[in-house]
Amino acid sequence: MPLHWKLVIDCADPHRQAAFWGAALDYTVEDHAALIARLLDAGAITPDALTEVDGHPAWRTLAAVRHPEDPYDPASDTGLGRRILFQAVPEEKRAKNRLHLDVHPGPGERAATVTRLEALGATALREVAEPGGAWTVMQDPEGNEFCVH
Question: What is the pTM of this model?
Answer without folding.
Answer: 0.91
